[in-house]
Design brief:
- It is a single chain.
- The chain has 70 residues and is of the alpha+beta class.
- Helix content is 54%, strand content 14%.
- It contains two helices and two strands.
- It has a two-stranded antiparallel ribbon with strand order 1-2.
- Strand 1 and strand 2 form a beta hairpin.
Length: 70
């Protein structure tokens, strides 16, 4: 009987990191939309410039997402 083991831990870690980035992207989009919706619901919109400048950015190295405006 011959038993062989294959180490797939690298591939699993890569897939896990990709799943984390996809989740962060979804969270960023959702938070961005909530921020824009909050401005609209509170009638805080004069020209729409603030609402239009709200964006999100996913920072892969930090496993973080940032929502804001310049």
């Amino acid at each position: 009987m011959k038993i062989e083991f294959t180490d797939n831990s690298g591939a699993i870690l890569d897939e896990f990191q990709q799943a984390v980035l996809r989740a962060l992207e979804k969270c960023g989009l959702t938070a961005e939309n909530y921020a824009k919706l909050n401005l609209t619901e509170n009638k805080s919109v004069d020209t729409g410039n603030l609402r239009g400048s709200i964006t999100h950015r996913t920072a892969a190295g930090e496993n973080a997402v940032y929502i804001g405006t310049n």
